[in-house]
Predict the structure.
Amino acid sequence: MNWSDLSLSPEIVKLIDKAGHKTPTPVQRQTIPLVVAGHDVLVSSQTGSGKTAAFVLPVLERFKGKNGTYILALSPTREIAQQTGAAFEMFGAPLGLKTVVCIGGASIPAEKEALASSPHIIVATPGRLCDHLERGNVWLDFIQCLIFDEADRMLDMGFAAQIELIAKQIPKAERQTLMFSATFAPKVEALARSVMKNPKEVVIKNSKNTTPKIDQRLMWVEEENKASTLIRLLRSSPGSVMVFAKSKERVYQIWRSLHASRIDAAYIHSDLTQEQRERVVADFKAHQFRVLVATDVMGRGIDVDDIAHVVNYDVPRLAEDYIHRIGRTGRRGKSGKATTFAIPRKDEQGIRAIERILGSELPYPHHPRQEPAQRSHHSQAQGRDYRAHNHNRDQYDGYREQRKALAPKIKPAASSVANRTPTPPIIKTEKKSPGFFMQLKQLFSSK
């Protein structure tokens, strides 16, 4: 199927060809005709599958040639909002459509002035848009198309109240609502029911369209061995690498460890200013450094086509975040790798949740849930668990585990000797020497 088969005008098809997009992706093939037809559309597709173009192109097709602010796109983070705004600008500017991006960290007076110029398209984060609503800088009465990009992430970040406030500002009966998400979590479905009218659903199965291009691996690693394992992995993995951690403090800790090991790396989290974030992302795209350490929220907005490897230093809190993390690699038809560090026992529940979403187990040579018959006889005899199979001391410290497993066999041997009938000890009676005062008494009595 070609772009011209998707109800797009020759004018937009020409812009697509100029941008170098040869053929539409599955999500674009299924979504674009529905949007052009004016339906509400609910889309579930993995990050990196082409969701942005799936709503940018048909929305521009519907509203090109019209004057007024008709399009509002909400994004969970500043970085994603900027990327969405850039996509609207790329294809919309040649059509005479103006785009304004409103995000935290930018100048409010400058955004106020831009909003006053009656742009055709507003791209914003929920928090910043609510700020402008409270200040009276913008009205949403005339919005005819409301787009929720990465709706699951916006809800995870606690924007439910802001989303409800924004949706109430736009008459539901007169608007088209588009919602895009990596997964159809219950909270996403609840939001869809409250803001959409009989939406058409588009579901792109991850297992058939995107994940085969990502070589996923699971490594069971004790907490104290994660840093050394990461360093060894980075030194053996060519290309650009993204490392995901669970917190800002963790990100900085990992960066310091890499810096001490002379690995060229940078980090990004919410404490950085907008200017600093943009510089870090630009330098990463320009290959000024090879490794970028990020939190989930910050990493989700990074759009780099040639990331070779994603490392989950920590198992994500939400299983859905795993899909977004590994979606940083294997993008636009390219292959990639994804490695997840998991702490034995502590992270097993999180790994099972991820595997339920994937529909398959994460590959690992000595999986903790292997059947007992698959274990070696030597391991069963010593009562060792799955961790002792891995004899890489840096990864699992198997040497200490082996010693722990052997310890119970040594103790019974010692106790059997102790339980034998003991030989009666030879008791020697010795005449004790008299004490000092007794010696004095004997001395005076002899005189």
Summary: Confidence is low (pLDDT under 50) at residues 207-211, 366-433. The radius of gyration is 32 Å. The chain has 20 helices and 13 strands. The domain at 3-204 is CATH 3.40.50.300 (Rossmann fold).
